Amino acid sequence: MKKPRYGPLILAIIIFLALLFTPASVQHALISNKKVNQAATSLDPNMFQGIALQQKMMDDKKYLPIFGSSELLRLDPYHPSNYFKVNYDGFTPFLVGRGGMQSLVHFLNFASMSNELKDRKFVFILSPQWFNEKGLDSMHFDPNFSKLQAYDFVFNKDIDPTLKKDAAKRLLQFGFIRKDKNLAYLLRGIAYHDKVNSLKLGYEKALGQFNYRVLIWRDTFKSLSVKPHRPNVDPSLKHLSWKELQHRADLMGENDTKTNPYGINDHYYRKKIQAKIGHLKGFRKHENYYHSPEYGDLQLVLDLLKEKHAKALFISVPENGRWYDFAGVPKKTRQYYYTRIKKQVEDAGFPVADFSNHEYDKYFLKDTMHLGWKGWVYVDQAIKKFYNSPNGKI
């Protein structure tokens, strides 16, 4: 009878453990500069929920990160990624956002890059729709939540303890996070300093570190599969003045919105609205932005960025005035949001490109809520001014 051979198994375990505890710097070295460049327009959730690609991007000042949500997917020729490809101004936009990525999602992302934030310029696009009474819900948070970034937050010793405690309490409000026993235990340790279970905390931390290391390697390998979106550039936009660009964007918007009086893209209107338009008048009349958990989530972002001396430009996107009048959202409710958000951001020391006076500007938005055509032209202009400002102001 042959004796069992444990050599290969022991060797495999040694190799696994060696890989597991390899320093992150070695893992990040596996990601090429070419891959980072491809990730700039990938809009890939693997990149959003990871760390490696974004940290490597933050180390290269040629990239200007733009954080937001679903508006980043509207890649028309005036979109920053396409416009600044034609009119290069010393930087490449790097897009981080998709639908449901609200302030708390970005907070965890920023926390994972906290050491790279100092004096780093980037853009953060705010959407009014985030700031409803419910704020971020599990349906939108769960698919955008990064367990890797959450573990990185737990083990990050360079975040102000009070801020960390407030963020941990907020994360624990979500049931899907509480169901993760190890992560939830570690978050409760931060939020409540539970001394009764201090002995168990050592075990949970060890388990958490193991999970964290596994996720780091997973992120590294997933980063290698990221692929870019095809560019949608228009070479004829090169060297045009802002006024000429606005005129061109108006013509494109006019051509694309012939089916409705709301300035909504024809394809979107036919697909999402036309068949039920008779039932939609006043359908959002009870919506308000006076009280929302999102204001608190945004404050977490602002406090972290201020603590780390980041240089961020916040874009305040307007709502589609014609559509929101039809939907029944009062103007005073919308104005309350615009005024409050501008004050909140500026009180934290960051500039705001406030476009709230463009609610009724045709072709500023592409549909009921997303930037498009002329809106991107204004955003491009604000980004250019911000990027070229020595002190990060506009």
Automatic annotation (TrEMBL):
Pathway: Cell wall biogenesis; lipoteichoic acid biosynthesis. Pfam families: DltD. PANTHER family: PROTEIN DLTD (PTHR40039). Keywords: Cell membrane, Membrane. It comes from the Bacteria. Belongs to the DltD family. It comes from Scopulibacillus daqui. InterPro entries: DltD (IPR006998), LTA_DltD (IPR023896). The keyword Cytoplasm does not apply. This is Protein DltD.
